[in-house]
Amino acid sequence: MFDFLHVLHLHDATVRSVLFGSLLIGATGGVLGSFAVLRRRSLMGDALAHAALPGVALAFLWTGSKSLPVLISGATCTGVLGVLLIQFITTRTRIKADAAIGIVLTVFFGIGIVLLTHIQRSLVGNQAGLDKFLFGQAASMVEDDVRVMSVMSLLIIVVVLLLYKEFKALIFDPKFLQSLGYSLQRVDLALMGLIVLTVMVGLQAVGVVLIAAMLITPAVAARFWTERLHVMVVLAAFIGGLSGASGTFLSAQAPRVPTGPVMVLVATGLFVLSGLLAPRRGLLARWRRQRSNVLRERRHHLLRALVVLQERSDNATRFRVDELVQELGWERRRVAGEARRLRRLHLVDCRDGHVQATAQGLAEGTFVVKSHRLWEHYLVYRDILSADHVDRPADEVEHLLTPDILERLEEILQRDHGIDTERVVDIHGSGSQYRPAGRERNEVGT
Questions:
Q1: Percent of the chain having pLDDT more than 70?
Q2: In the listed set 257, 279, 301, which residue is the last one of a domain according to the structure?
Q3: Residue whose C-alpha is closest to residue 42's, from 212, 296, 186, 164
Q4: What is the pTM of this model?
């Protein structure tokens, strides 16, 4: 508990450096990751991270220095070279982008491993400590490293703000951007260059292996919550920063646990929560919508069956459950259960094994029947389908028609074909003849 409070109050300069650096990594990765994900360049960050490894090794071999600016400069050079190679392969050959990324990733990573092995076997190998760029070592960050990362992050954010409209057009409407006189290749190259810098920012803390996760995961998690790009960028930055800060605090409680992987695990946890709980795109929200649709269709079918049975009978309003079973093609248990549910909604009355629609239920059932029949008439008289083929489409569409759409259908049928829409009868000539949808959908929602 004392260690946690000590970390929480940020008394240790090392903790402050690691915390601020992790925040920068997460926030910057979230911002650029939003554009990378929407541009369908999610794996580009992984390729660039692997392409940066030879640059780190070459910069050390050339200068003998382990300072972060020198190593990041080398990593940036080979990262940019990797971007140019990927674009060259995709534009000058028939190889697709995913294959080009795979080629560059594996080749550069192999070169980097060979160079690191050579360094480790040399006289200065034990003092190099370059393996931290492979797996990440956030605890090794000092104030000078954070200053360098701050400058790079500020540069990235400024360029994103200046080119935000161009990046947005590149993602959603590249032809429009091209019509304004912009070069798509140059704008795309600018975006890739920013992704290179973002990868360089997080390379020391998260490492080559996991940096792609900090670029992709916060952006994908933010995508669940919004349909707007600027909101997604801000949310991704927040989720990334929160992952970085949380990863720092959690890893501080277990000193032998590296910060980078904990950051990735926190980001993954936030992604899972977003995927489950997001109000529109989350799994729970989708399940609720699907369940609501299934229950609405069941309600419509039962109420429509009551209206059709009432049309066939001599002013009868109460019908046995067996009659509904025969009309709907459902199991008796399912009909009884649906009737009980509609009774709670005050749409039907259930007494002595009989079911009767209330005034509210009768009005809704009549609307469903009319929707079905109007749509059948529309399909037939517009020569879209013949009379013996209109039943299934009408049965599926009747749940979606609104009063405005029905009014438009009535206008078309009355004006073009002289149909009395106040009394729309069954187009098949007798009875309801609608498809007993319960047989096809018996498994849905049960």
A1: 83
A2: 279
A3: 212
A4: 0.76
